[in-house]
Design brief:
By secondary structure, this protein is of the alpha+beta class. The protein has 12 helices and 4 strands, in the order ααβαααααββααααβα. The protein folds into 2 domains: about 180 residues, 2-Layer Sandwich (Bacterial polysaccharide co-polymerase-like), CATH 3.30.1890; about 120 residues. Helix 2 packs antiparallel against helix 12 and helix 9 packs antiparallel against helix 10. The protein starts with a helix and ends with a helix. About 15% of the residues are buried.
């Protein structure tokens, strides 16, 4: 009995103090979870920020949003680099050029108000995009009372443009409430873009032709002036070619000099072998005088002085003629070059150096692909959920700081 009491005492002493009944170290049991006001706020915010927008989006997308059909097309700007026969023979470089890419220009043009206005004149975009009234579908329909700026904003929503600057390819997606309307709009866009690219080519070609025509007119006038001056020189001097006339007269002068030498020799022989009053001596002297007079006359015709030196008048005459010949040859060379450049510009204008190549023609849709209801619903739901989650994190972070 005493041993049992001792065992109980030892067992009781072995129990830790924090486990003994009534000890201050025993934790109180956890109270059962009860709904609080903040829980109701979280549920209400989840419904307001996630479920309600999802339900509203579902009701609108499947109840009021009208079906939209897409017509797709793709094109690029091509440049013809083929050289004409005149360019190959004359070595003339290309006359047209561009400081920026034609595809970049076209991409900017596709978003411009000018293109919207031109397509509106062709297709009546206001009527096409307002077939569904804004009271039925205020999100995707167009208000016909809007301005051209409003139409341009709606254009950006209905026309999807994808441009690859590396390859120069442009893909377009045109949406409308009717597949035929989408096809008509796509064809109108393709036609207007083609006209714009052709206009760029025509402008560049007209500038090239106008420049070369002005250069050709100046070259023709210069050639006429040079030839007119040469003609006036010939009429004034009565000399067609001073070099030819000089050669002919120099030949005649040489012949006269030879005849004079023969006459002098003959006269000396007669003086040694005949009497002083022999008539042959008188005839020989007369012949020498005539030859000397003819030589002097030919020298005067050549512009040579008595001592055989060139006079200033003859040197000026020859120099003037040579200057006129150089001016005429230069004018003829300039005229030939400008005429070849003008012919090359005309050849360039006769062919279409830039053109719009549509590798995907406008397509006709057979089923409505827009609006993408499921995708838009997922986006609305995900956005609402993340917004709700962020607000909850902010609320609890502020609550824990208290």
């Amino acid at each position: 009995m005493a041993d049992g009491t001792a065992d109980q005492t030892r067992t009781k002493g072995a129990i830790p103090a924090f486990m003994q009944a009534g000890s201050a170290g025993v934790p109180q049991p956890v109270e059962p979870a009860r709904p609080r006001r903040r829980h109701a706020f979280l549920v209400a915010s989840f419904v307001l920020l996630v479920l309600v927008p999802a339900l509203v989006a579902t009701a609108y997308l499947w109840g009021r949003a009208a079906d939209q059909y897409a017509s797709r097309l793709a094109f690029s700007v091509r440049t013809e680099n083929q050289s004409s026969a005149i360019e190959i023979l004359g070595g003339i470089t290309e006359l047209s050029g561009s400081s920026s890419s034609d595809a970049d220009i076209l991409f900017s043009y596709l978003k411009s108000q000018e293109l919207v206005s031109k397509v509106q004149d062709r297709v009546d975009l206001v009527g096409v995009w307002s077939k569904i009234s804004t009271s039925q579908d205020p999100l995707f329909a167009y208000d016909p009372s809007g301005t051209i700026e409003d139409l341009q904003d709606h254009w950006a929503r209905k026309i999807s443009i994808v441009y690859d600057s590396g390859t120069g390819l442009i893909d377009l997606e045109v949406r409308a409430f009717d597949p035929t309307d989408a096809l008509v709009i796509a064809r109108a866009i393709l036609a207007e873009c083609t006209a714009m690219i052709n206009g760029l080519s025509q402008t560049a070609q007209q500038d090239s032709i106008r420049f070369t025509q002005e250069e050709l007119d100046r070259a023709v006038e210069r050639l006429k002036t040079a030839r007119r001056a040469l003609t006036q020189f010939r009429n004034r001097t009565q000399i067609v070619d001073p070099s030819i006339d000089t050669q002919n007269q120099m030949g005649l002068l040489v012949t006269l000099q030879q005849q004079l030498a023969d006459a002098l020799i003959e006269s000396d022989l007669l003086a040694d072998t005949t009497r002083q009053n022999d008539p042959r001596i008188t005839q020989a002297k007369r012949r020498i005088e005539v030859i000397n007079a003819r030589i002097a006359s030919e020298r005067r015709n050549l512009g040579l002085g008595k001592d055989g030196d060139s006079s200033d008048a003859f040197a000026t005459l020859v120099g003037e003629y040579e200057g006129l010949i150089v001016d005429r040859e230069f004018a003829e060379s300039a005229y030939t070059a400008t005429l070849a450049a003008h012919d090359a510009a005309l050849s360039e204008a006769r062919r279409q150096s830039r053109y719009l190549a549509a590798h995907v023609k406008p397509t006709l849709a057979q089923r409505a692909e827009f609006p993408q209801r499921m995708w838009m619903l997922v986006l609305v739901t995900v956005f609402g959920f993340f917004s709700w989650a962020i607000l909850c994190l902010v609320y609890y972070s502020l609550r824990d700081r208290r």
